[in-house]
Design brief:
By secondary structure, this protein is α/β, with parallel strands linked by helices. The protein has helices at residues 15-25, 43-47, 76-88, 92-100, 102-109, 113-127, 147-163, 168-180, 195-210, 230-238, 240-252, 263-293, 311-323, and strands at residues 4-9, 32-37, 58-62, 68-73, 139-143, 185-191, 215-223, 299-303. The longest helix has 31 residues, at 263-293. The structure holds adenosine-5'-triphosphate and magnesium ion (MG). Magnesium ion binds at residues 15-16, 43, 143.
């Protein structure tokens, strides 16, 4: 299992939710995980029902079995100060830089610099060791930018490595790329069983592969329950025979009585209408499942939680990921 787990996918498909569930799932048996947010939207804090995360690693949950989940919302400005501090020992000059707005300038103007700082911080957490030489975190899980931007986001150190040919920035970029392109990293995609997100997933995986970034797994989120088994679906497709069969079963069940034109007849059409709607959705979902299967990556499915997402729901999704052998 790769130590850096990157979670991407189309906007709104559940990247933040799945990343959080994965951080919980990987934190069992006393392990420690770090859930990293790189887009500054405090989605993780909301999900764990805590106050906004500062730029500081803090424990946000205890997993079943005693593992711990830490979280960090990376602030690109503060990451730049960190970085300058690390390499140039700037001290108070760093604070002066911040006052002068040089950091704003650097992170908004210098192409790619912002992303280098964000990925660099995550990789630093992956490699960090404690005094006894053990890894500080067993796993780092990144709630990454969406599919359309993730390859560029992760690959940006390559560009910087090309720009700065020597010196600490060059070395840092090289070190980060070594982690990101190795088996230490896996980039997962979250999708829904719908045409657009599935297409984006396929495109995104193609881009990752072209950039030689390590693809991980596909998580189909918000899967709705199966309502009819194959035999019933076949009946729905048959039309007229379904009508007779359904009317007969409804009468047999005591609905509508035996009288012609009674309740049973009136129930048939709306029920068949709903069944037809479901059959159509089911057929579309089958098509999307086939496209996903063609990607050649392990597939996982998480259900749509009807009551909406809360902390209990998050633990439920984490347990399902474990059951499916994800963690
Ligand atoms: N399995 C699920 N069942 C029910 N609701 C879900 C599930 N997964 C996610 N949600 C809900 O769907 C919404 C979008 O989820 P989330 O914020 O994780 O998506 P995202 O991909 O991170 O979105 P964004 O692109 O805005 O960052 C949220 O309201 C979340 O609570
Ligand atoms: Mg999100």
């Amino acid at each position: 299992m790769s130590r850096l787990q990157v979670v991407s996918g189309k906007g709104g498909t559940g990247k933040t939710t799945v990343a959080a569930a994965l951080a919980l799932a990987l934190a069992t048996e006393g392990r420690r995980t770090l859930l990293v947010e790189v887009e500054g939207r405090q989605g993780i804090a909301q999900l764990f029902e805590t106050e906004a995360l500062p730029y500081e690693e803090r424990k946000i949950a205890v997993a079943p079995g005693g593992g711990e989940v830490y979280a960090l919302a990376i602030d690109p400005e503060l990451a730049l100060l960190d970085y300058l501090q690390m390499f140039y020992k700037l001290g108070s000059a760093g604070r002066a830089l911040k006052k002068l707005g040089a950091i704003d300038f650097a992170t908004t103007v210098a192409p790619g610099l912002r992303d280098v700082l964000l990925t660099g911080k995550a990789c630093e957490a992956v490699r960090r060791k404690d005094k006894r030489g053990r890894f500080a975190y067993d796993y780092v899980i990144m709630d990454a930018p969406p599919t359309g931007r993730v390859t560029r986001f992760l690959n940006v150190n390559d560009e910087v490595a090309g720009l700065a040919r020597i010196g600490p920035i060059h070395n840092q970029a090289q070190a980060v790329m070594r982690v990101l392109k190795s088996s230490e990293t896996a980039v997962h995609m979250v999708t829904l069983l719908e045409e657009m997100p599935v297409q984006e997933t396929a495109d995104g995986i193609g881009e990752l592969r072209a950039a030689r970034l390590p693809t991980g797994r596909v998580i189909v989120n918000m899967v709705r329950p199966a309502l009819l088994e194959e035999a019933s679906l076949a009946l729905v497709r048959d039309g007229a025979p379904a009508r007779t069969a359904l009317a007969r079963s409804l009468s047999a069940a005591g609905l509508g009585g035996a009288r012609r034109g009674g309740g049973a007849e009136r129930l048939v059409s709306p029920l068949l209408g709903q069944a037809a709607e479901y059959a159509e959705r089911h057929a579309l979902e089958c098509d999307q499942r086939a496209v996903l299967a063609g990607l050649g990556l392990p597939l996982h499915e998480l259900p749509l939680l009807a009551e909406g997402m809360d902390l209990a729901g998050l633990f439920q999704l984490a347990a399902l990921l474990r059951e499916q052998g994800f963690a």
